[in-house]
Amino acid sequence: MSDPVEQKPGRREGSRKRPAKGADAQQRPDSRPDSRADVRPGPRADKADMPRRGREGLASRKTAASILERVLEKRVPLDALLDEHHGIPHFRDLDARDRALVRAIVGAVLRHRGELEAALDRCIEHKLPANAEALRILLMVGAAQILFLDVPDHAAVSIAVTVAAENRRTRDARGLVNGVLRRIARERELLAGRTDAARLNTPDWLFASWTEAYGEDTATAIATAHAQQPGLDLTPKRDAEAVAAAVEGVVLSTGTVRLAETRRVSLLPGFAEGDWWVQDAAAALPARLLGDVAGLHVADLCAAPGGKTAELAAAGADVTAIDLSENRLKRLAQNLDRLGLSATLKAADVLAYEPEAPFDAILLDAPCSATGTIRRHPDVAWLKTPEDVATLSALQAKMLDRVAGWVKPGGRLVFCTCSLEPQEGEAHIEPFLRAHPEFRLEPVLPAEVGGLAHVVTGSGTLRTLPCHDAGTANAEPGMDGFFAARFVRQG
Ligand SMILES: C[S@@+](CC[C@H](N)C(=O)[O-])C[C@H]1O[C@@H](n2cnc3c(N)ncnc32)[C@H](O)[C@@H]1O
């Protein structure tokens, strides 16, 4: 699950690189190949994206390759590696501009992995040996810069060759790196802009799952949305219009403030004052489904890092926030502190916890595969497996079953996950209602979610998709994939 409270700065790497060198040179008179600068400012680049010259350009590419090896081979989540304070030392030691470049390269490789693999398959004449993963990742790092980032081809190629030369696993393949990347640059027209790009960039099992659940056109639209790095969504504590004016964002119909570009969160106006927190527009919806919570004792289960706890507390609820992870609860406490909000925090396992008294309302944001957050976390597509979905689905069912008895008669229970997989959403409803006839499903009304009728299903559950319109014509579309169902305990 993404951290809805703090978002790292980064670069929007989803836009495709210029279609042709000639056209690009015309648009940007300053884009002459320059051996000193290895990233040229593109339409979405800013100064923070331009790394230092020389060996520092080398360090960012080496770090990007090493991070990608850890993600793709050792299955380490990207957030753990890219943290400015706790990430891998090579990353932390870079300056802000180089870190931005690393993020851009890693993001481009993960979002366009299928296209890059296809480009390599086309341009590598002989099959690489099975143990050539380091070489393949190095080639993807180079190819991503050529095809998807505003890096001059000559810089992408020459730095890749130098990186290859400095690694004993790739040293002997310097010539191949040079030849393959040059060919990719020459054949960019054939390699970029493929009509099957979205399909190629999505693991088969995920595409099959979305096709079965939503149909092939919607599955393609979801996969297409994943190619773009989303902007920044803020949940305002009080006055959305004032926050939007201060940060130069747009207020969505749901009340979220959207900025077109990801920015350094702690430098935005209102951060220190606690006027808002970072939370995707879709993630802000489930807590709303509890209705008017002012004065109610609400349990926020699986609460950290606290995006929904903050919403409930800001709405006047007396919140008990429970999470298994003490570390994540510490972050929740820091976040509430900045926001000037409070809640009772308990580090506990929902499957073992015994509340002293039932709650007026419960929000259960259960642990899930997080496939609804691939836009913001492109590594999720490559880290999660169908087995994870099955295991998490079983855990979610257990949690739902356990917490049912904690709701007072007449009270609401909202269950949600940030997964696109029906096993982690829709599939829970029938078994839960069968096992707990004291509950009924209370349909969500479009008016409760900013008038977004398209995110309310026929049975009255909430289902947002990455390709969904966020409800305001003058803001970028899209939102994370979320599922939520609202139950009421009768009598
Ligand atoms: C989807 S995230 C929660 C996001 C949070 N609700 C928010 O809006 O910021 C899931 C959380 O479940 C917690 N968790 C996982 N298993 C748990 C368990 N058995 N009991 C309590 N919390 C658990 C994890 O530590 C994680 O913080």
UniProtKB/TrEMBL annotation:
Enzyme Commission no: 2.1.1.176
Region (Disordered), start-end ranges: 1-61
Major place of residence: cytoplasm
Pfam families: Methyltr_RsmB-F, NusB
Localization in the cell: Cytoplasm
A molecular function GO annotation: RNA binding
GO cellular component, one term: cytoplasm
Compositionally biased spans, kind Basic and acidic residues: 1-13, 27-59
Keyword Phosphoprotein set for record: no
Similarity field: Belongs to the class I-like SAM-binding methyltransferase superfamily. RsmB/NOP family.
Protein name, entry field: 16S rRNA (cytosine(967)-C(5))-methyltransferase
Taxonomic source organism: Faunimonas pinastri
